[in-house]
Write a structure and sequence with these properties.
Among the domains are: 310 residues, alpha-galactosidase from lactobacil brevis (Beta-galactosidase, Chain A, domain 5, Distorted Sandwich), CATH 2.70.98; 96 residues, Sandwich (Immunoglobulin-like). It is built from twelve helices and 37 strands. The structure holds (2R,3S,4R,5S)-2-(hydroxymethyl)piperidine-3,4,5-triol. The site of (2R,3S,4R,5S)-2-(hydroxymethyl)piperidine-3,4,5-triol has 11 residues, from loops.
């Protein structure tokens, strides 16, 4: 790759050297242009030094004219500062929209006006320094464009070069500006425990939509992702879509503002709620990254781009990540009641059906017999495992599987040795109640001693035991978020430092124990975001394992996150959630749309169930690289009470499409809707094959991509909770 490094210290000395690479600076026009994938992003420096977004969308031709910065605004009530598409704006002048940065200086001044100072271009990264017009508050605006997808990562480093400390009251990573349109649809994801990732769609109107978590972590109430589509009747695979995701696992906020002229700005970063960050001279604060992307292939195209970006540029092993192994997890089978003999018996059964990873869930440590005690005491329970974990781990290895373990490192039960020894280690306000959630309190990971304890016990656990996988759980939100041991002006920094320390611990553990993979779980999907995905290999979207409910949860999940990071378990029927009964095949097919896990009580299975499971797991292994790594097309979405759901995964090389079809219940003798696959090579020849279920004998055995995509496929699913899996495979040209 060619490297273009341009450093410009003042606008007057702007570089005119020839530029290569995806980022170009036009020194005459004072514009920056980034091109990658199918996307162009242009920003410019206005005459007064303000940075403005000039274009974000479909890739333009290099010879196309570049838009120029301009100043708008028509009346004393509508100052230019409020209608300009700022890249990053301080709260100053008469700003009424959401600022990117708001500070309070010790002399009472709170006015901040940031203007261009200099810039640097290094390969895919552009750094622009802006500075207050008077004070030495300097902000580095960092832009990094992914060469393959055009997804742009934006963040800000706020630096105090003055001689006194000041307080940051609001810090947002970036603002995404969209052109004026009265035709925008906003999508975002909401939820609650056991019902995560509900897709919301609404028309945008002038006003503000605030997506936020005040919970100390990502939360499941809203997920830090958005998509905005132009057009009143959005279709899955056509239309302009701008999307973004915040890489942060603490409290966060995304504001979608539309002004009276229908211009849209989306600003994301730390939530200002209860936020204050004191910056001493010489110190700096980094905001999270706020990613943004564009697709002209509709919301389906947008999520495929985001999936590719996540798998190839975000997750720890990217771009060469390993496929998710088929795992077994003990939680729904044995709950807290784990012991050596019981887990070994389950492990034997799991191995017999083709499971590759055996994970022992909650209950193995401290005095843990239910959720009232033990969290924080990370020694192996001697009654349950008199010889430590080694015999079980050895057994699991002998059976040809690797071994995984559940942990919940950031929490403590009041009934624990840890809490009795260190009651001051939890978030708290002295003299105030300590609200428990699931009988537990939140450790203050911002404290250096807590950070050292958490890293220390995990490092010891991984050093002393041959563990290949951690399921890292987090089962409550924050309350009374006090950090009394810190100096008063730093106490609210707990929101930032606790998350930073979490990330640091994860990074250090991974560096020291490189073979260990980690799953982010938070009582289901309450900590799924692009921040935690930089350190974890997979996520647990929901504790709800009802295979029918899961279709909707997984569908919502797929708007923002790749199937390749999504774990899904096959559990018992009737399912505890809804008391719904479904066939084992149906449960498998629902879970096979991501990383497959088995969470059923294998001690209760019949020989027929073992045989079915063995066949299904073998089929899954055949298609899993397509399912986990391929391009996802939502052919029929299980939204708005739909009776049907069909997903298609197209392998990276386009040679195989894997289709899962589900039916809730047949009604009035109506037939299943015809299925129209997408993304196939139009002229290529594909053969069709049912892996689970039966294809109608009228369906030809092979036909062109065009035939399958335009004639469609008629399947004959009938009954209640029916499902089938079939593939289209490209036939070699003779
Ligand atoms: C919540 C998780 O989501 C479950 O899968 C299980 O690990 C329990 N915690 C264990 O306490």
């Amino acid at each position: 790759m060619s490297v273009g490094l341009i450093s410009v210290t003042s606008p007057l000395k702007a570089a005119t050297a020839p530029q290569s690479g995806p980022i170009r600076y036009d020194s005459a026009a004072r514009t920056f242009r980034m091109d990658a994938g199918d996307v162009t992003y242009i920003l410019g420096v206005a005459e007064d030094g303000d940075l403005q977004t000039l274009y974000w969308g479909k890739r333009l031709r290099i010879q196309d004219p570049s838009p120029a910065p301009r100043t708008e605004g028509g009346s004393g009530f509508e100052l230019p500062i409020d209608v300009t598409p700022h890249e990053f704006v301080g709260w100053g002048g008469g700003l009424y929209v959401v600022p990117n940065l708001k500070v309070s200086f010790p002399d009472g001044n709170r006015d901040l006006v940031l203007h261009y100072l200099s810039h640097t271009i290094r390969e895919n990264t552009l750094t622009i320094k802006v500075k207050d017009i008077e004070r030495d508050v300097v902000v580095d605006l960092i832009y990094e464009m992914d060469p393959a997808t055009g997804v742009l990562a934006r963040s800000a480093r706020i630096e105090n070069r003055t001689k006194e400390a000041f307080t940051i009251e609001e810090a947002f990573a970036a603002t995404w500006n969209l052109p004026s349109s009265s035709d925008y649809q906003l999508r975002y994801l909401t939820g609650r425990w056991a019902s995560e990732f509900n897709l919301q769609e609404q028309a945008l109107h002038p006003g503000k939509v605030v997506l936020e978590s005040r919970r100390g972590s990502t939360g499941d109430e809203v997920n830090p992702w958005f998509a905005i589509e132009r057009g009143a009747q959005p279709d899955q695979d056509t239309g302009d879509v701008w999307f973004g995701a915040l890489a942060w696992s603490g409290s966060w906020q995304i504001n979608v503002e539309q002004n009276a002229a229908n211009r849209v700005r989306v600003t994301g970063g730390f939530t200002p709620f209860d936020f204050a960050y004191s910056l001493k001279p010489g110190q700096s604060l980094d905001t999270p990254k706020f990613y943004g992307g564009y697709s002209d292939g509709g919301i389906g195209g947008a999520s495929r781009l985001l999936h590719r970006f996540e798998l190839d540029a975000v997750v720890p092993q990217s771009p060469n990540r390993k496929l998710r192994p088929v795992l077994y997890n003990s939680w729904e089978a044995t709950g807290f009641d784990v012991n050596e003999a019981g887990q070994e018996a389950l492990a034997e059964k799991a191995a017999s059906i083709g499971v590759e990873r055996f994970v022992m869930d909650d209950g193995w440590f401290g005095k843990r017999k239910d959720d009232h005690a033990g969290l924080g005491d990370w020694y192996v329970n001697p009654q349950k495992f008199p010889n430590g974990l080694k015999p079980l781990i050895d057994k699991v290895h002998t059976l040809g599987m690797d071994f995984g373990l559940w942990v919940e490192p950031e929490m403590v039960n009041p009934d624990s040795d840890l809490y009795r020894a260190h009651p001051d280690w939890v978030l708290n306000f002295p003299g105030r109640p300590r609200t428990e959630g699931r009988n537990q309190l939140v450790l203050n990971l911002a404290r250096p001693d807590v950070r050292a304890y958490v890293y220390g016990f995990l490092d010891k656990l991984l050093t002393e035991n041959d563990v290949a996988f951690l399921k890292w759980d987090y089962n409550r939100n924050w309350s009374e978020p006090g950090w009394p041991a810190a100096p008063l002006e730093q106490q609210k920094q707990v929101y930032v430092e606790a998350v930073r320390n979490l990330y640091n611990i994860l990074a250090e553990l991974r560096a020291k124990h490189p073979k260990v993979e980690i799953e982010s779980c938070s009582g289901g999907g309450a900590r799924v975001d692009l921040g935690v995905l930089r350190y974890t290999d997979e996520v647990w979207p929901s504790d709800n394992t009802d295979p029918f409910d899961r279709l909707r949860i997984q569908n919502g999940f797929s708007y923002a996150y790749a199937p390749g990071v999504m774990m899904a378990w096959v559990t018992d029927s009737p399912n505890w959630m809804n008391n719904r009964s479904t066939s084992l095949e149906y449960r498998f097919l629902s879970s096979m749309q991501g990383g497959l896990g088995i969470g059923a009580n294998l001690n209760k299975w019949t020989p027929e169930e073992f045989a079915t499971a063995k066949t299904m797991i073998a089929q899954y292994k055949r298609v899993r690289s397509t399912v986990q790594e391929g391009a996802l097309y939502r052919l029929i979405s299980p939204e708005n009470g739909s009776e049907h759901s069909v997903t298609e995964s197209l392998s990276k090389d386009g040679r195989e499409a894997t289709l899962f079809a589900f039916l809730h219940s047949s009604q009035l003798g109506e037939s299943y809707p015809r299925i129209y696959p997408r993304g196939l090579d139009e002229a290529g020849e594909y053969s069709i094959r049912a892996l689970d279920g039966q294809l109608d004998s009228r369906i030809p055995q092979h036909a062109s991509g065009d035939y399958w995509m335009h004639h469609g496929i008629e399947i004959s699913l009938r009954g209640d909770f029916q499902a089938m899996l079939f593939t289209l495979e490209k036939v070699e040209a003779k």
